[in-house]
Amino acid sequence: MLAELSMHIIDIVQNSISAGADLIKVKIHELKDRDLLIIEVEDNGKGMDKDQINRVQDPFYTTKSFKRVGLGIPLFKQTAEHCDGSFQILSEPSKGTLIRATFKKSHVDLPPMGNLRDTILTLVVGEPNVDFVFEVETDGVVFVLDTREVKKELQDVPINHPEVVKFLREYIGENLKTMEVAS
Amino acid sequence: MKLEDLRKIREKAEKELKLREGKARIRIVVGMGTSGIAAGAREVLKAFLDEIEKRNLQDVMVTQSGEKGLSSHEPVAEVWEEGKPIVVYGNLTPEIARRIVADHVVNGNPVSEFVIEVREA
Ligand SMILES: Nc1ncnc2c1ncn2[C@@H]1O[C@H](COP(=O)(O)OP(=O)(O)OP(=O)(O)O)[C@@H](O)[C@H]1O
Ligand SMILES: [Mg+2]
After folding, report:
1. Fold of the B3-119 domain
2. Which ipTM did the prediction report?
3. Which residues of A touch B49 (CB under 8 A)?
């Protein structure tokens, strides 16, 4: 259903936003020598207990007596496991959640990353009251975008001001340009 | 490019914000739930941003929402304007998004072929 890894990232980040997080960290690490891609989304939202963690990973677990369980997590998990990777949820009620998916980089069915620049841009601009830290790393080259630093420079000017959007698009694009994982 | 370059943008923007008391005239909310993303909501949101930037519409704000609903019409977006009912658009593409900015946001004429709902704010 979601054709790109970056679409899964948006989807998993939506869960963090729904969970009331105001700080969301997204890590995308490519480890070439280990043929590995790691995607992590960490938030400070309301978290889940053990029972919930198990429940949300299984799309068939729900019975009529339970609240409907969504598709976002099962889809992401399925993609990771299908690509010889792994999937993990670490969470604690009222502390936050860490979702980690790994993928075998060379797997034939690994979905493309998709446009990471637009993914980052639409999230940080579209959710101006949430802070994001995006960390993209390929073989030791790291790009970090921390919206708290952006907002410190901006003070009262909103992050979704058109001039700021323009700046961020170019800034993110320039930094990701040479990174293989982002293409 | 450095983040410090934002300072210049800030100084310029602050002056303009003061002139209109910093209020957004129109808010566009793009639905980015699972089915919305799959249907192309990110590209639609991006098209709204690009068009607003191109026209330098400083009093228009684009945000996103993970809420689901109306999934048979995704991608969807709502246009919120003070004192007016909320206009919900469906089956959007980047091209239609750009038209909504030109016709509805700038000229005040909703693009009726793509309106799927109008509701009170
Ligand atoms: N980061 C998170 N923090 C707290 N709870 C979460 C988090 N991510 C997921 N959950 C819980 O897991 C449930 C299932 O998430 P999932 O993304 O699979 O489906 P959904 O968001 O309910 O619906 P959709 O199909 O639109 O994604 C959520 O409804 C929520 O209760
Ligand atoms: Mg979800």
Report:
1. Glutaredoxin (3.40.30)
2. 0.88
3. 121-122, 125, 162, 165, 169
